[in-house]
C-alpha cells in the first residue's frame, strides 16, 4: 500500500510518500501565503502514484482536515513515530522547528510517555535563528558553522539576556555597535537557545538514545552545544526535518 504523510509547518511543508515502510518520495517547499494549494500541489504533482491514504500533521494540519477530509495527528505523535522508525532505540526526541520547540520522552515500546513544548513565541526556534543570522549578516548555513572554534570565542563569554525575538535583535545590534565580534555574538545566541532547550529537557528527562529532529538539527553549532550540555551523544538523521512527515505516513499505513 502506498501512503503519504504531510507536515504543514510554519516555514516549510514536508511531504513523504512511502510503500511498505520505505520512502519513495521526500520533498519540502516553503509554506508561503497559500499552504493549502502548496499541499495539493505536492500531493498531485510529486507523487509517482496516488497514495491510498494520507495523514497530515504540523502547524497547519487542520487545513487538510477541513478542506481535504484528511485525518490528522499531532506533531508530537508524528515526530516520535518517525524518529523511532529511523532510530529504533530512540527514547528522547528534541525537535526544534520553525515556530516551536518540543522535547518528547518515549517508553521502551516507542509510545509517547511525556513531553514539554514551547509554542508561545518564536524564541529559540528556526524563525528566531533566521532573524539572528540576518541581523549578523550570516546566511543560515554560515550561522550554524559560526562557533566551530567555540572554546576561544566563549572564554570571555557574553550573554544574550532576552529570548524575545524583537528584544534579542535589539540586544544583538547593541553588541555589534560596541565592537563585539559577530562570531562571539553568534556563539552567545546559540548558547542561549540551548539553555532554553535544556530547561524543557529537565522537565521531561533525557533517556538514551537522544534524537535531534527538525530543520534546526542541521545547525552544527546547536547540535554540538546540545550534546555538550547533555554530556551524551545525540543522533541526527540525514533529513531531520522530514521525520514528522515520515511518522504521519507510517500512521497512514497502520
Task: Characterize the structure shown.
This protein has 254 residues and is α/β, with parallel strands linked by helices. It folds into two domains: 1-87 and 241-254, Nucleotidyltransferase, domain 5, CATH 3.30.420.40; 89-236, 2-Layer Sandwich (Nucleotidyltransferase, domain 5). Helix content is 43%, strand content 21%. It is built from ten helices and nine strands. It has helices at residues 35-46, 61-68, 75-86, 126-136, 140-144, 150-153, 165-177, 182-204, 220-230, 243-253; strands spanning 2-8, 12-19, 22-30, 53-57, 92-96, 101-106, 112-118, 210-213, 234-235. It has a five-stranded mixed beta sheet with strand order 7-6-5-8-9, sandwiched between helices. The protein has a four-stranded mixed beta sheet with strand order 3-2-1-4. Strand 8 (210-213), helix 9 (220-230) and strand 9 form a beta-alpha-beta unit. Helix 4 (126-136) runs parallel beside helix 7 (165-177) and helix 8 (182-204) crosses helix 9 (220-230). The longest helix has 23 residues, at 182-204. It is globular, with a radius of gyration of 19 Å.
Chart the SSEs and their pairings.
Elements: E1 2-8, E2 12-19, E3 22-30, H1 35-46, E4 53-57, H2 61-68, H3 75-86, E5 92-96, E6 101-106, E7 112-118, H4 126-136, H5 140-144, H6 150-153, H7 165-177, H8 182-204, E8 210-213, H9 220-230, E9 234-235, H10 243-253
Parallel strand pairs: 1-4, 5-8, 8-9
Antiparallel strand pairs: 1-2, 2-3, 5-6, 6-7
